[in-house]
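Hey, I'm writing a tutorial for new members on how sequence and structure tokens pair up, and I'd like a real worked example in the thread rather than a made-up one. If someone can provide the structure for the chain below, I'll link this post from the tutorial.
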Amino acid sequence: MEYQISRSKALNNIPSKKYQEKIITLLESCQTCSQKNNNGTNLDGLCETCCYRITAYNRYLEGNIPTSFWDFDMKEFRGSESLLDIFNKINENYPGFYKSGSMLCLSGGHGKGKTTILTQILKKGAQKNYSVLYTTLGDVVDGLISAPYEDKFTAKKELTMVDILCIDELDPRHINNGAGADLFGRTLDRVLRTRYENKLPTLFATNSPNVKEIFTGEIKASLDSIMSKMKEIPVIGKDFRKE
């Protein structure tokens, strides 16, 4: 099954074959739909459960949420309790979270569960018909600076207008010094400022213990004001991926 995404290529990281693989695996695991010899290309006449799951998959696809998180159940979460509290509070009143236009950053070392929580927040939003987008700072740099003009325009538009945006891996290694960094800083500042002024929630994750120190030089000057609006939430604890 092929799919169409009207998004900057720099912000699209879901391989078509992986998407099709998820659909086929879902249908093969269904006692009803597996009897129809469905190879994932014809989705007519599926059971209600599979139709619901495929609709959810399509929304996750549009949101660029990594496929490894599509079927994740929060009952399996083994990360920081503080992250679980954040997820539960947002999930209990998602319309309130969206209305607040929060700008939150989860900061802490590797393996604390930051990416898992952020993708699960996005999944809940997608299920509730909000438009969502998961991306990384490296892909944002590519989308705003290195991509062809049309793709660059599409990336900026989506980053600015999507209902709920998540930028993961907020890390200075993705940004070079010089004129390119200055241009990126000013462009990202406009994107985030527009989101803040329109009260569109923006979520970040970083392995740095202090998000305010991630950027330096001209890019720091460009982003300093809007970054002051961000609420940083430190995440402590062990690296659960090593268990």
